[in-house]
Amino acid sequence: MYTLQVTEHYENPRNVGTIVDADGTASVGSPVDGEMIKLTLKITDDVIVAAKFRAFGCPTAIASASILTELITGTHIPDALEITAVQLSDALGGLPLDKQRYANTAEKTLKMAIANFLSKKEG
């Protein structure tokens, strides 16, 4: 059912944890609902230098968050904002339609974490 990429990121997730002094944070979903992704970012000169996640849900939720952190690390903010759920799904070898919502959640979490960073920067 799962692609090799989903299985690899589920069994060996990258960048699990929380950045204590994060510059941007976001959490989407709830364990009560069966899925949640929390993302913390460290940003220097508008470049994401570190990204960590915590996820609750099925293997696809964990894999989506894991691949997200790999794709955004080292990326400038404007480029990170261009990352889509479709790109996350493609990087995982393609997600079935009934699992696409996890890539959507990862994308939404990223955009909210960047918005959180930008609001602090402007404030």
Automatic annotation (TrEMBL):
InterPro entries, alphabetized: NIF_FeS_clus_asmbl_NifU_N
Gene Ontology MF annotations: iron ion binding; iron-sulfur cluster binding
Domain NIF system FeS cluster assembly NifU N-terminal: from-to ranges: 1-121
TM region(s), chain numbering: none
GO biological process: one example: iron-sulfur cluster assembly
Annotated protein name in UniProt: Iron-sulfur cluster assembly scaffold protein IscU 2
